[in-house]
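Input record (Table S2, row 544):
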Amino acid sequence: MKPVKINAKAQIRKELPIGTLTGLSSYRRPPEPAMLVIFGGAGDLAWRKLVPALFDLFKDGCLPDYFAVIIVDALPLNETGLLERFRGGARRFAQHQIREKDWKEFGSHFSYFRADFADKSAYTQLKRLLAGLEQEWERKAVELFYLATPPRFFAVIVDMLGRAGLARERNQSRILVEKPIGHDLKSMLEINRTLLSRFNERQIFRIDHYLGKETVRNILAFRFANVLFEPVWDRRYVDYVTITVAEQVGLERRGSYYEGAGALRDMVQNHLLQLLCLIAMEPPVSFEADEVRNKKVDVLHAVRRIPADAAWEFAARGQYGPGTIDGKKVPGYRQEPGVAADSNTETFAALELFVDNWRWQDVPFYLRTGKRLAQQVSEIVIHFRQVPHQSFPPEAVVNWLPAALILCIQPQEGISLRFQAKKPGAEMILEPVSMHFNYGDAFSEPLPDAYKTLLWDLMTGDATTFMRADQVEAAWSILTPVLEYWQSRPATDFPNYAAGSMGPEHAEVLLARGGCAWPSPTLLPANQSDAAVADCRFEPAAGK
Ligand code: BG6
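Output record (6-O-phosphono-beta-D-glucopyranose complex):
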């Protein structure tokens, strides 16, 4: 291990300059002194997400008074080169502009340790370094160990941290684990056993970055801070729910990881099931981390098990072939670097799930995600039932569509409510119209990146937006029959959707047989004047 000197005066701010904050009131409480150790910190995650988010927190005056970032990786890098690379990432992804003076000060809190993750002596030196910082700062600091490495290193790092006595202090050290947490239920349990052999559950922060997204956090506010919607949020009024996370992007140089993962593991096991939990959970008694997580895990426990021998009835898979996106030709999955020419990995997955409880009995929840789809859009649509009795004459309801509530997660950020209105004129003709809430119109603050929020939560020790072991376990259990079914019966029709389409036909069939349909992505108007133009691009559900 090659230790590099850390700025002896790693002190960012003595007093919190309230006036310079960007209005993110939740970020006002300054966290305790902190030492953030990022294992695998020379990789893409630190470059793209962690360092830009830290820089934004720094610029907002929201890092603790005493702060150090120690990057641990096996690559032969020097600190100057690494910081230069980080600067490139921050320039692209941070919300604040990079000014030389700020970057210099920010960078002075970083150091690089070249280390083999399995080298015992590296951890002894790390321990010495952390103790040295505390001595210099003359105060205790939280030790935050961030595992931004491929999962195969989790066990060895955790074990070594434990052996070096770096996991012992329950209130003083935390470990953050990036997804994927395991490859299946068995390997997840294994990783968990390893984590728990050295750390207490309260010290473990399992990240799902979707939970840090502002529009995702807003689901709780929308549902539980308004008396309006909760009374209709159940099987009496909701016909079905669709959750779409569609990506236009392909593999982005992650072929070797993705080949072993696929859409179900990469997206559904974590992000989509977490969205399902937020939509289907009961109201929490308080916003204590465990209370919220208890309510969420109840949903996962209530999900009806998919029969292992008939998974195809509830799950659709796809793999993209060559196609065109936004007028540009893109290669098929099997032509991507790092992908086998006969790969059977799915790049699209759709599920039909049921939550067996009083609130949701027999209401289908449809989840879909895929790469290289026609549009980049994440949204949740609550499709309400038809009115029990249609009293309007047939000519009045030619364009009639059931009411729907659309929670737009990204890239548009807001909420839209579709309902019926009378079209102006002598006759009673009904037309669907929409009311929109758009973050950009309602708030002047930019939406923080998910990692900024999650790093803040990690520093302040708030685990509400992190996954507890039982949630991860329950999520894997739901998917196990599908994973096993797919593994034992390789797809014979791959590639079965063209890049630039919305996925394979089977995903449409899953819904169509119940008289449901995937909605076309909703367009929120960019500003209030456009809001007058109702946007109703829903495709009528067959038979509904
Ligand atoms: C990651 C997946 O967890 O989420 C990626 O590994 C995916 O494959 C990404 O592209 C999507 O995140 P976001 O925030 O861009 O929707």
